[in-house]
Amino acid sequence: MQQLTTLGVSLDKVYYTNKTEANHFFSSIDKDGNYYDYVVLQESTPIALSDIQKYRSNLKLIVEKIQINSPNAAIYVYQNMSPLPYTNSHYNEYYKELQKNATLAAAFIKNAGVLKVGDAVKDAYDGKSSYNYLKNNKDNLRYGNDILYFINDGAFLQTVLLYSTIFNEKPIIPKKLILSTGTGDNDTMRKQEVNKAVSNPKALEEIAFNNR
């Protein structure tokens, strides 16, 4: 697996910030005719939310480079989740706009679909499959002040969603996975029992599979 990330910036800036590394990746070849089989492209939330033309052009920039040596790669456009807390009255407004824009952006790309992260997170918040996002009156899916990041439940949900979307089946979940020990500055990542570190893995697995 390869990834290029620059936190909080648009896809074009991710490319130009990591241009040497990116061009090395994109120039790689494989004897089966596709160096990449699956690619997930995540645009920054501000652009995905309010600039559909920039959204499309940034996706086009990356996809054209990928398709030089991976013409049949499956492209998944990451559907951003609403950046607001679920309790915010504008949560659904942002969610619906991001859902719409991801679909519109993916429609112009060869072999592209949507990785429905925003939909899966919304279903989890809505209590689908008997999931409860609140634990001790705190959000068990996402954590943060200015920016909400996935914690163990959210990370587990996204991982299962990605597998289910690509392979159209549920993954076999190992007894232990590398998960966070908490949300504090001194907390670390370590291998932990899924049933203890994730509040309701069965419910999240079902939500993920239903959004593939």
Account of the 3D structure:
The protein is α/β, with parallel strands linked by helices. Helices cover 44% and strands 15% of the residues. Strands 1-2-3 form a three-stranded parallel β-sheet, with helices on both faces. Strands 4-5 form a two-stranded antiparallel ribbon. Strands 6-7 form a two-stranded antiparallel sheet. Helix 4 packs across helix 5 and helix 7 crosses helix 9. 29% of the residues are buried.
Question: Which key features would you list for this structure?
Answer:
212 residues; alpha/beta; 3-stranded parallel β-sheet; two-stranded antiparallel sheet; 9 strands
Topology:
Elements: H1 11-17, H2 19-26, E1 38-41, H3 45-50, H4 52-69, E2 74-78, H5 91-106, E3 112-115, H6 117-125, E4 134-135, E5 138-139, E6 142-143, E7 149-150, H7 152-167, E8 176-180, E9 189-193, H8 194-197, H9 201-210
Parallel strand pairs: 1-2, 2-3
Antiparallel strand pairs: 4-5, 6-7, 8-9
Short description:
By secondary structure, this protein is an alpha/beta fold. It has helices at 11-17, 19-26, 45-50, 52-69, 91-106, 117-125, 152-167, 194-197, 201-210, and strands at residues 38-41, 74-78, 112-115, 134-135, 138-139, 142-143, 149-150, 176-180, 189-193.
